[in-house]
Amino acid sequence: MKAVVMAGGSGSRLRPLTIARPKALVPVVNKPVLAHILNLLKFHRITEVIITVYHLADQIQDYFGDGSELGMLIRYSFEESPLGTAGGVKQVQDLLDDTFLVISGDILTDVDLSALVQFHRSREALVTLTLKRVADPLDYGLVISNPDGRITQFTEKPGWGQVISDTVNAGIYVLEPEVLDRLRPHQSYDFSQDVLPSLLEEGAPLYGYIAEDSYWCDIGTVPAYMRAFSDVLEGRVRHIQLGQELGNGVWAEPGVEIAPDATIYGPVYLGQEVKVKGGATIYGPAMVRDFTIVDNRAQIERAAIWSHCYIGESAEVRGAIVCSQCNIRAKSIILEGAVIGDNTLVGRGTVIHPNVKIWPGKEIETGITVRNSIIWGSQGRRVLFGQYGVTGVVNVDLTPEFTAKLGTAFGSILPKGSLVTINRDPHRSPRMLKRALISGLPSAGINVWDLGTQPVPIARYYTCQSVAVAGIHVRLSPYDERMVDIRFFDHTGANLDETSKRRVEQSFFREDFRRVYLDEIGTIAYAPAVVETYLRSFLQSVNRDVIRHARFYIVVDYANSPVASVFPTILNEVGCNVVALNANIDESRLAIQPYEFQADLERLGIITGTLKARLGIRFDVSGERIFLVDDTGKLIPDSLAALAFADLVLRFHPGGTIAVPVKMPDEFELVAARYGGHVVRTRTDARALSNAACGNNIVMAAAGNGSFIFPAFQATSDGMMAAVRLLEYLALSDIPLSAIVADLPPSYTLHQAISCPWEAKGIVMRRISQHFRNEEIDNTDGIKIRFGKSDWVLLLSDPDYPLFQVYAQAPSQPLVSERMASFVNLVLEFQK
Question: How many structural domains does the chain have?
């Protein structure tokens, strides 16, 4: 059997380790990771290998040659441009005339390849994938298979809402040669994104071999690299020889010198001719590669020191990586997560703070403290984006320095010379961070239009209608004044999609920003006619005469937000008589506690009922959501308000379609049926609802949290438009809101949050899927198990916290309580 080893990756997430070498040549203890893969192939008697190369290809060819020193036959396939995992294999099709194996050259594994091939042949498969169970499947391709191994579903790099198992694609395949016949030469194809999903749709026999007892690690990030070499030293990876064991978990190559008073606590690997001087201490797991000197009283702890380095007297390296040919002078301290690039000199007494990255060839002055990366930035966060954008504590997580870099990262993924709008709420914290963002964007060649402090729907609308390619809004968190959310929009005004978020994160974490020349630096200006543009289109989109004729008397709570500077003009144009509450913009009231919010709603209800007003409306601070009180002063729950809105909208748009998330009750279908309408179910995130709102015949989308979209105006949430549409439909129907609500079908629902460690989420989702495999399951978002009409449970993984969100509906209140209790117990049991 022949094997194709994919070794074309540049390893951008591993920088600066991969600045001077391809990812496949990054050393893991005693050999490059690609050498470990070749040894594994040879162990399983696969000795004829084709290596596909692209980035720094000559280095790989120079290192391995024709393979004769390994007892193998190695050929190389050079890609002029990246062809993807499958496109690179297609290029060597003429060398593959029988069943062959494809394996990534930048993973560390001891998978039983012989058993994998035997499994493939026993199933008569067209393609067999190696699958591995992982605790955190977000960065991998998720694969679902049935008990005999036949694959039923792929999900490439899922969000937590899409995680329904913990088995991922390990990047090792056995294929029949005819798979390549369907690919066109010289085109880019990816196995996981293009070839395999296409084969699955055609019903081809695709199987997954779960490598239960095997080791597997994708060495794609610095933490993964640290984990990989530690696992080798701790004996978790089979078939790797580490030289001569000196005892107590210390392995040494020839020529090692250890002073009598040096102390080494295994597991530790010492490369060829390493010198450990008097009083030096090494705590494992640690690797010190060839020709390195560890001088007197130096300390190395859980660190990787590459070849030809000098660790000076009393220097300390803790949990860090020091690349080749570095000079770490006396009494320097390098702390957890730091990476020192090749050929770097760290001056005497210098302190390198955690997670700092030093690019190759730098000279760090004596006695300084380095808190930020040299030339390139760094941040220790796992991901940037959460449910509400980039969120953090002001001046702790979100500092001006961090935010300026974030602006540069965002600008770096946008076309040079393009325009971005930026908006904020009136608080001083968003003001500070907004200015930091503004400073970062022009450095990447982006022009900025400052919108000031507008309600978010205006910022979204203006972004969509202008020539801007994106927008940003900086707000104080509604319930915690210490927190700020930075929200990013695309050119339509909608939240960024997942692909764009990943691109921003990659730009940020790779620290590979675009720095433009002097005459390309972006401009900063105030945007023209922002409110006027919005109001003009808004008033043209509603039936002002109908609302004027109804002569509404309403109560509006502006929540001390910028909505108070815009919405009164709209209400005046439609002839409403208004009692305004909290109409002064007050930065001290922008973030309030939940109990204060509830008290404000209750006060709104009392005032509305006492004044016998037709309606009470409370805006959230952003202006995107509204909360309703009917003409009797009764607060309408958010999901019931959405159902009432659906009824009103479809009365005047019979046959129309509304979009709601999968967590909303089945009564939406009942209401739609009254008017010959339809319901589209979406994922629970705002972007998914915006995407659905752009579909054919969609007249409204509702999130069930006070957020409404009327796509005829804009495909994003707009509380002001929702409020005026409500007035319009109430005027047309001439029915009070209380009567609309009373005529709705009853629903019995519950919602509960359940704690679950991050590493257990995938396991729980898989076990839930298996437990209910005989029931009807909907994977639109999370796992929705349907037991009957208006009888279901939905399990959603919270994207920001170690929690599950559980929603349930049943035909009666006792039954929904029973369903919820039973399901919660099951989720807790599956965590054990």
Answer: 5
Q: How far apart are the first and last CA of the chain?
A: 42
Are 38 and 162 members of one domain? yes
| Helices first, then strands: H and E counts in the chain | 21, 55
Residue pair 570/747 in contact by the 8 Å Cβ criterion: no
Task: Let me know whether 624 and 511 are in one domain.
Answer: no
The pairing of strands 483-489 and 389-393 is antiparallel
* Residue 159 banded pLDDT, cuts 50, 70, 90: low
Q: What percent of the chain has pLDDT over 70?
A: 97
Q: What is the mean pLDDT of the chain?
A: 91
Give the structural domain span for 676: 542-742
CA of 160: how far to CAs of 136, 381, 658, in Å?
A: 9, 18, 25
Contact status, residue 254 vs residue 272, Cβ threshold 8 Å: yes
CA–CA gap between residue 717 and residue 703 (Å, rounded): 9
State the DSSP code for 683: -
Residues 306 and 175 placed together within one structural domain of the fold: no
CA angle centred on 257, ends 254 and 261, rounded to 5°: 145
pLDDT of residue 377: 37
* Residues forming a β-bridge with 257: 275
Peptide bond into 267 cis (omega under 30): yes
Residue pair 294/311 in contact (Cβ under 8 Å)? The answer is: yes
Nearest to residue 521, comparing CAs of 431, 422, 439? 439
Alpha-carbon span 530 to 450, nearest angstrom: 10
CB atoms within 10 A of CB 83: 23
Q: Are 5 and 105 in contact (CB under 8 A)?
A: yes
Instruction: Tell me: do 250 and 323 sit in the same domain.
Output: yes
**Least confident interval from 369-378, 393-402, 497-506:** 369-378
**Least trusted range by pLDDT, from 572-576, 664-668, 686-690, 802-806:** 802-806
Whether residues 560 and 519 share a domain: the answer is no
* Confidence (pTM): 0.65
**Those residues with Cβ within 8 angstroms of residue 417's Cβ, 6 or more apart along the chain or in another chain:** 445, 446, 447, 520, 522
505 and 389 in contact (C-beta within 8 Å)? Answer: no
Strands 73-78 and 389-393: unpaired
DSSP type of residue 623: S
Low-confidence winner among 22-31, 99-108, 274-283, 584-593 (lowest mean pLDDT): 584-593
* Co-location of 14 and 108 in the same domain: yes
Q: Please answer whether residues 319 and 302 qualify as being in contact, where contact means their C-beta atoms are separated by less than 8 angstroms.
A: yes
* Same domain, residue pair 265 and 197: no
The three-state secondary structure class of 135 is coil
90 membership: H or E segment, kind and range: helix 84-90
Average pLDDT over residues 484-506: 94
* Mean pLDDT in residue range 417-427: 96
- pLDDT category of residue 164 using cuts at 50, 70 and 90: low
**DSSP string covering 228-286, please?**
HHHHHHTT-STT---SEEEETTEEE-TT-EE-TT-EEESSEEE-TT-EE-TT-EEESSE
Share above pLDDT 90 across residues of the chain, in percent, rounded to a whole number? 70
Token readout for 591 is 């973030």
Q: For residue 421, give the CATH number of its domain.
A: 3.40.120.10
C-alpha distance from residue 702 to each of 53, 538, 642, 649, 661 (Å) = 50, 19, 6, 11, 8
Instruction: Enumerate residues 6+ apart whose C-beta is below 8 A from 19.
Output: 341, 342, 359, 360
Q: Give yes or no for a contact between 332 and 315, defined as CB atoms under 8 angstroms apart.
A: yes
